[in-house]
Amino acid sequence: MINKTDSTNISARDSAELYTNSCSEYTTTYEHDKLITDWIKKEEDGEKLVADFQRRAGMVKGKHFLDLGFGSGLHIPAFINAGALVHGIEVNPILFEIANDLLRERGITSDLKLYDGIHIPYPDDYFDYIFSVSVLEHVTDLRAVINEINRVLKPGGRAYISFPNRWAPRETHTGFWLIHYFPRHIADYLFRMFGSSAVKELNLHFISYFSFRRALRGTHLQIICEIDASTRFRYFFKKILANMNIHFSSVLKTVMVILEKEI
Structurally, how many domains does the chain consist of? Predict the structure, then answer.
């Protein structure tokens, strides 16, 4: 007999296997297994993610919410259940179909669109919130995408952004150590020596907190330097960095910031 948790895992695993069997992007065992694990975790952690979003960015009920690069779509049901008016955009047609099938099977209606990877197909100042997790490292023109986020986000609106930190010792997608510290073309050559075509196939770029912050120049988007902490040490650590206008996640494995558009 399969319990509810096991059933959830099988659903996510099946959709992940469907994707990996339909594409050529995941060329090593590590990359394949990590994708499976990540998809299962997305569905299991949906409610926790919504809680973190609402604690850090704001309540989503009744708000226009954009999932930028929704991938498998496994985050979408949790945000819809919280009352968000969810819209989603994705560049990959296979993922687009997988996400649509997932929502259809669950009786969920959402506004999902394919897009070109840069131009967000919505009018200016449309969204209260934008959500983008593990997407920006796959875009060719980071600054152009940031400009689009700036355009479609309402004044006072917020964006929840997360991506792997370039300066973490182990590269997230491939599992290789330190190679991603090199310029992208050299990293690509070294990855291929070890059997991974991730740079080309995943359009993989390496972003740090500081290169991301540079991409915000000329926009109305500001990083909120959060200082809430569960211990006094963490509070003072975050406070010191905030005084230098540096978000605490700049030193973590994953950069995870809240942007706010100036009113």
Answer: 1
Percent of residues, the chain, with pLDDT higher than 70: 96
> What does the alpha-carbon distance between residue 193 and residue 189 come to, in Å, rounded to a whole number?
6
For residue 115 the two structure tokens come to: 């897009």
Mean of the per-residue pLDDT values for the chain?
92
**Residue 250 counted as domain residue:** no
Full residue range of the structural domain in which residue 26 is found = 1-44
Find, among 94, 140, 96, the residue nearest to 119 by Cα: 140
In a domain, 243, yes or no: no
pLDDT by residue (tens digit) across 207-243? Answer: 999 999 999 999 999 999 999 999 999 999 999 999 9
26 within a domain of the structure (yes/no)? yes
Residue 63 located in a structural domain = no
Residue 7: other Cβ atoms inside 10 A: 10
User: What is the chain's length?
Assistant: 263
